Amino acid sequence: DQRMMPFLKLQALQKADFVTCAGDVQRHYFLPWLLMAGHDIREDACPAIPMSLSPELPTPRKSDEPVFLYSGIFLPWQDPSCALERLIKKIDERQAGKLLIFAGPHPTYPFPAGSAPAIIETLQAHHRVEFVGVVPYETLTERSLDCSVSIDLMARNVERELAFTTRTVVALWCGLPVLYNDYSELSSYISQYQAGWTVAPDDEAEIDLALDCAFDKPDRVHAFGRHAQQLVRERLNWEKTVLPLAEFCHA
C-alpha cells in the first residue's frame, strides 16, 4: 500500500546511525525526513557522497562510426523518447551509426511500464539497433568501452531533478561523453568539465546539434571523453568522496 510508504521511510531512518545521500539536492530532500525521524539536523547531518567509482580508469576503444549507448531500467516516470527518436532519425538520415540498448524491466519490483518500452519495441526492429537487455555491471562497462556517446536525456520530473544517476557516472568513468539534461545536479559537473552536452530534454534543435557533433566531430567527442574521465578522477573518485563515511567509521 503506497499510503504506508512515508511511515516505512521514517521507520528506516529511525534505525540509522549514519545517513548519506548522493548530492546536495538530495540532501535538501532528506533533511525534513531526518528531522521527522528524530535526528538532530543541527549537526552535519546527511553528508553528500556522490555516486563514485574507482580511480583506476579503463581505456576506451575507438570505433569507426559513432556508437550510441542507452542503458538503465524502465521506470514509469522516465521518458527518454525525444532524444531516442531524434537519434534514430539521425541514424536513418546518415545511414551510419549504431545504437546499443542495455535496458529492461526492473529485476525486483514490478513497476508498471512507462513510455520507454513502447519506444524500445519500435527500435528493436531497426537494423542499426542492438537490443541487449539488462546485463551484469561488468558486461555493461566492458561493452561501454566500444561506444562513443551515452544517451541519458529524459523529460523533466521531480525524480530526475533529485537523481544523481548511477548509469551516467558509469558512462563517464568509461570515457563516454553524455547527452544529459540541463536541470539536475550532475548537469553542472558535466557542463563544467565539458564532459558532454547538457540540454533541455524537449529542445530538438539542441539535441540535433549534439548528435551532429557526435557524427561530424570525432576529435571533439574524444576530447569530451577525456574530460569525462578527468571529471570522475577529480570529483567522483571513491578514494576522495568516501571521506565523510570513513570519518564516521573511525570515530
What does it look like?
The chain has 251 residues and is α/β, with parallel strands linked by helices. 47% of the residues lie in helices and 12% in strands. It has helices at residues 5-14, 24-36, 81-94, 116-124, 137-144, 158-162, 166-173, 185-193, 204-216, 218-235, 238-241, 243-250, and strands at 67-73, 98-104, 129-131, 149-152, 178-181, 196-199. It has a six-stranded parallel beta sheet, sandwiched between helices. β5 (178-181), α8 (185-193) and β6 form a beta-alpha-beta unit. It is globular, with a radius of gyration of 19 Å.
Sketch the major β-sheet.
6 strands, parallel
Mean pLDDT: 93
Helical content class: 40-55%
Distance between the termini: 39 Å
Query: If you compute it from the alpha carbons, what radius of gyration comes out, rounded to the nearest whole angstrom?
Result: 19 Å
What does the overall shape look like?
globular
Task: Please provide the ordered H/E string of secondary-structure elements.
Answer: HHEHEHEHEHHEHEHHHH
- What quaternary form is this? single chain
What portion of the residues fall into strands of 2 or more residues?
Answer: 5-15%
